[in-house]
Write a structure and sequence with these properties.
single chain; about 230 residues; alpha/beta; Nucleotidyltransferase, domain 5; 2 domains; five-stranded mixed sheet; 7 helices; 10 strands; globular
Length: about 230
């Protein structure tokens, strides 16, 4: 089964093509240049994998929560390619993808994902790996760092990962007793790995139903906020 996966919900832009056993990945910290870089990266990954668009069995994308523009870029490309190929789309939680990266890198199975949400907040969610599948313990939310807590589970050792820990060192210090990695970021390989079992089970949705996950109501900044350098 050939899966194309996209993740653009943070400063990192990544594309992965694979079948679970092998992934061809393109990944780069592109800042705000996702729209310029993602299509060349996509073409490169498909070419190296030897997979044409007509060979795809599914398309997955990091659905957020994350940077509004970035999430919409991945969503829009996934929808467009799905309309052109007729293959199903799998929206994947960006925070769950971050947990999968933490598992791949560190072997962690209980992870609090904390991504910088700008404006003095973080996107957070907690997941536990159970029988090879990530289970949601705390749903995605956007919170001030001071309100973030590890899940309350007696005897459970939780870890924390994501850019929110780098953006807010006090949050990292609060969670440090459980182990943290602020350098980890969600990527397309993790998105593809999470989408693969959904597709194998006959899941996925039509392009029109493949929607981003938003947990913040504000989708625009005031002129003064933009002038001050604020970002959503």
């Amino acid at each position: 089964m050939n899966v194309l996966a996209l993740e653009t919900g943070s400063e990192w832009c990544s594309v992965a093509v694979g079948d679970g056993a092998r992934w061809v990945v393109r990944s780069s910290n592109t800042g705000q240049a996702h729209s310029e870089r993602i299509m060349p990266m996509l073409d490169e990954a498909l070419a190296e994998a030897g997979v044409a668009l007509r060979d795809l069995d599914g398309i997955a994308f990091g659905a957020g929560p994350g940077a509004f523009t970035g999430v919409r870029i991945a969503c829009g490309i996934a929808q467009g390619l799905s309309l052109g190929t007729g293959v199903p789309v799998v929206p994947v939680s960006t925070l769950m993808a971050l947990c999968e990266v933490a598992r791949r890198v560190h072997g962690w199975t209980q992870v609090l994902a904390a991504q910088d949400a700008r404006m003095g907040e973080v996107y957070v969610a907690a997941h536990r790996l159970d029988a090879g599948r990530w289970q949601e313990v705390a749903a995605p939310a956007v919170l001030p760092p001071a309100l973030v807590r590890l899940p309350d589970a007696a005897g459970a050792r939780w870890f924390a990962a994501g850019s929110g820990l780098a953006a807010y060192p006090d949050l990292a210090a609060t969670l440090a007793h459980s182990g943290v990695d602020a350098a980890l970021h969600p990527d397309a390989e993790a998105v593809g790995a999470l989408a693969l079992p959904v597709l194998l089970a006959g899941g996925g949705v039509a392009a029109a139903l493949a929607l981003p996950i938003y947990v913040r109501d504000r989708v625009a900044l005031t002129t003064a906020e933009r002038a001050a350098g604020a970002r959503l």
